[in-house]
Fold:
Amino acid sequence: MAIGLASWPWERMGNYKYALYLPLVWEVYQTSIPLRQNVCVHILAVTFLRVVVYGLWQAASRFLPLVDGLHIRPQGFSYRQIDREYHCDNPHLLQALLLYAGHKWVGLFECMPFWSTRGLVLVLLLHVGPAEMLYYFIHRALHTSYFFENYHKLHHESVTPEPSTAGVSSFLEQIWISAIMGIVVIGSTVIGGASVFNLYAYVLFFDCLRCYGHSGIEIVPVSIFKFFPLLRYFLYTPSYHALHHECQDCNFCLFMPFYDYFGNTVNPRTQDFHAESRDKSTGRVPDFVFLLHAVDFTSALHSLFVFRTFASRPYASSIFLIPFLPIVVLIASGMLIWGTAFRYWNYYIRTYHIQVWLVPRFGFMYFLPFARDNINSLIEKAILDADKTGVKVFGLAALNKNEALNKGGSLFVAKHPNLRVRVCHGNTLTAAVILKEIPIHVKEVFLTGATSKLGRAIALYLCRKGIRVLMLTESRKRFEAIFAEAPSNVRNNLVHVTKHQAGKNCKTWILGKWLTYWEQMFAPSGTHFHQFVVPPVVPFRRDCTYGKLAAMRLPDDVRGLPCCEYALDRNVVHACHAGGLVHLLEGWTHHEVGALDVDRIDVVWNAALKHGLLPV
Structure:
């Protein structure tokens, strides 16, 4: 019995559970009643709006420009919590089916008017009185040993609650919550106060307050309770509810702490903890900041604050993203005119506080000549903000260190010679990862993007190892400059080529420049394409293999990392990101900008392995 009420009836259905909405959809389709009078239309509409409420609260709670410094527990979230809360919309489905059953069996909500002032007052009185009181006693009962272990423990496994946590509970819990909501909704209907507005208003306001309490951000100023002391008894705060998740034997009320005060179950730290949560001066300064940018329109929707479940898995294009593309295009158009760099998200690694910031620009914008000055100004502002804050190392991702844009970050170091923060493009470790992927038996490689920062370092390193490097570049002058850097006894290992046909007999291609379908066709069957080009090339050849962008797996003790970095797996970051971490962990005091020091490739690689980072 306990197991049956602890799990959901449709648990084994997975996402097929949404088929349970079909009877409502069918009734909407086949009925002749006007849509505005159709109860099923209102049930489906209010369910959809509930999902929107949860989504908006979820996005707002993770959108750092809006809530930076307000997080109650800033340690971040785990993949385990996100996976556990995947089906947080189960209560929506249950309550939609209960409303539908009430409509079919009893004829509730028939011919409802749009507005009822009497009904609105009844809803308020029924909630403040019996609903809140009943929830308080039921919630206390759930924290007794038997009920907690069998029914309520799942909800409290989320030590750092999010809006989605509000919907994570056992089937028995949600039956009780639905009954409490039913006292208000059905009670006001039976008494004669039913209205369309009251149905929407109560259900959505209920969800809004649940999400607010589980949001993990303290948005209520301390001063409001000083001016209105009685409000403390009628409005709970996220910090109030966070203490419940932490201590579990206090702060049981749903939305109104009045019953906790009456039952003497208020945590004595409630007021002080509220003040601490609002004190932004207690925030910890990050040791390392990594500056990202969006790659393309759909990958921008992989941002952590958009769809948290989607962001917690490696990025892959999906048909469900298509409806959102017009919104992203409009935002991108606005960015061409105006935009600022802002703090995006933070997580922790070991004892170091790491933050990831985002330049609100898409990849294609970096190649627009008129946009370069604007992008550089955003990056410069972010570096200066980090320097002012006390950040130790500032990492540049992908196109943020483009040679044509700012010479690999050298522009900022030259312009601000007194920077305390160390600017690091991390490409030394990127080169090391690519080089360590090349099998020992390889004697020849075909290299595109051969005169870029990475291409130059890779070519010089390989030629020192006695490997012949076919360097694809149209610039003879740039090739000769790299050729002159190589030791005289190995220079002959560097070969200048100008056509892709030159690699037709080489099965190891290293791509630093994008390849079209026809250019890939010059590679022989069985070729492996290593790459450091953003975005990665499209894998057209089925008879060849394609490596991912250079990346490293973080140590097992990483905590608070709730999203995947672009198309990489969980707990894996791009090598340039890992390079910045190594720079911090080693305590190096030099800037890593501009051209790569080939002699440091093995040094950085060994340092990364020493700190527990592993090749993918």
In short: The two ends are 46 Å apart (CA to CA). Residues 117-142 form the longest helix (26 residues). The chain has a mean pLDDT of 89. The chain has three domains: 2-278, 288-424+575-611, 429-547.
